[in-house]
Fold this protein.
Amino acid sequence: MPTHRSQPNPDLLSRIPLTARVVVEIGCGDGALAAAYRLVNPNVRWYGVDGDPGAIAEAERWMDGAACIDIEAAPLPFGLPDGIDCLVYGDALQRLRDPKSVLQRHLAQLDDDGMVLICVPNLEHWSFAERLLRGTWAYEQSGLFDRTHLRWFTVDTMRQDLLELGLAPCDVHPRVFAPDAARRFTAAIAPALAALGIDQDQYLRRALPLQYVWRARKTPRQRLIVGGNMLEPVGGVSHVRVVHPLAALGTDPSVTTQVMTAIEETPAGDTTPRIFVLHRPALSGERGVGILQALISNNWLVVTEFDDHPDHFPALRDGGHLTFRGVHAVQTSTPTLAAVLRQRNPEVAVFPNALTALPEPRNFADFGRLTLFFGALNREPDWQPLMPVLNEVARGAGERLRFEVVHDRLFFEALETPHKRFTPTCDYETYMSLLGGSEISLMPLGDTTFNRSKSDLKFIEAGACRVVSVASPIVYADSIVDGETGLLFRDAEELRGHLLRLLALPERALAIGEAARRYVAGNRMLAYQVADRIAWYRSLWARREELSAALSRRLAAGTGG
């Protein structure tokens, strides 16, 4: 098989289950898909085969095992005693003489709960018909008419092949390119379609996709629907607690996820398990009752997602009793918060904040200049006692120390240095980009009840970006190994010492940043939570009658947060 392009197929990448422990890719090319997937699931074991020795030489650095073989003539050359979680055939089956036989042999090594991911060209693509009609059909070096393509597929023939192999098709995703050209061609042949009794819209749907991406399981599982709402995306909270987790859950083909802006009516007789995650709601009065009634009457089991101390919010102290007592369960980010929330609802799960992907490192390009990042909401009381020391260090360092400030205008204006840049409150992608271009991240937290309930998210974000966290021990002492994965300071003098040493020894700063990145890669990725989240949601649904009865008893017992 020829070498693939170095850019992975995004429609394959986004459909590989994040729970996969062992992936085998047939037609791995230069390893681009493995390299990209390792950024979201660094602990995966990935094996690849390809017929191109040059491609395999490139792929080996991303693989736990790589082999240049004729996959039709030889078995998989890897010892995989634990089985395979996901078989990937990206643009491979069409190059085989007998793809079903190859699939059948490989399926013997697929775990009972494993999945097959396949990308195949669509024989019904409009360009086939156009070339045949014009008499210009010919093989090409690459693309749909690649001269190495031996087999052709339609959506119906591929589905039939999967069923005959004993697989349960989960979903199929059409890959559509140049849709306007397809529409023009379909319009041009409309009279012929009409004469043949072919509906024009139905033909267009078949002719649009260049390729199809299929997911199929060895053993079918009951579908689970997880919906959710989200607040305005301030400070990245909505992304980390709602958007990214839902996307991660959706890599499991048995789970359908959606961020919803309105409650949709559930079709009559539909008993599919449904979990709705309310992000930081303030449910009180008639409005709160109406939201919960609409969800529960449409067969949703309701979970509140909350990751701050509830007593900090007046709406939850003064009549917001439905936020926790009026739902079936609660999910949060820390054991400290869980203990607080269990006083309001005993059904609480803890899912620590985690990242969806490791950014490519972009910092430490110049050891002679370091950038200190500060980007947080509501931190004025925490940083104000530190500002004299920050200005002292800034004066001594000159242009060797720059400041990247997001959101906090007062912090920016208090810095007495020209080497600073301010960015107003921004989207999460911009926030992470600015953080990733820095070498040091300042994380002050005063000792208050509210702060003690916060999570270590900022350390996780910084560590993923290879940035050194210089943090207060409140919250962060539970995550940072002082001097190894970050630096803790208890007062302004300790902060001064840390900053001066980092400026003097930037190679030490790099070593700490790399250790923090390794910690995040090994322990704090969303990939490592997906199975637990799905299992918890399924367990909630299995206990929904018990949880609904407990909800009714809480409401009958009275009010309170």
Notes: The chain has three domains: 10-217, 224-355+531-557, 370-523. Residues 130 and 185 are 8 Å apart (CA to CA). The chain has a mean pLDDT of 93.
